[in-house]
Amino acid sequence: MAENKVIICCQCQKELEPKKTYFTYLGHSFCTDILKCPQCGEIYIPEEMVKGRMAEVEMQLEDK
Ligand SMILES: [Zn+2]
Predict the structure, then answer these.
(1) Which residue numbers delimit the DUF7479 domain (predicted)?
(2) Is 30 exposed, middle or buried (0-12, 13-18, 19+ CB in 10 A)?
(3) Among the four residues 22, 37, 44, 54, which has the most C-beta atoms within 10 Å?
């Protein structure tokens, strides 16, 4: 990641921490670091990251 900005949970005012999280998309699962609030468990997913990952998965599916 290029930027090192801190994301704060809007509910708890706590700094979100990166956590390995599993996702399933189009029947494909993958694991990535996601910022998560240590208090309420709220996750923050940057839209660009989602798009990048989803595009990767879609490409993998097309290869079949
Ligand atoms: Zn929170």
Answers:
(1) 7-64
(2) middle
(3) 37
Ligand 1 centroid – CA 1 distance (Å): 23
Q: What is the pLDDT of residues 4-47, one digit of tens each?
A: 678 899 999 999 999 888 878 788 888 888 899 999 998 887 77
Q: Predicted confidence band at 62 (pLDDT cuts at 50, 70, 90)?
A: confident
CA 27/CA 21 separation, integer angstroms: 16
How many angstroms separate the CA atoms of 38 and 36, rounded?
Answer: 6
Distance 37 CA to ligand 1 centre (A): 5
pLDDT, position 64: 65
Tokens for 10? 């809007």
| Residue 23 in tokens | 């996702």
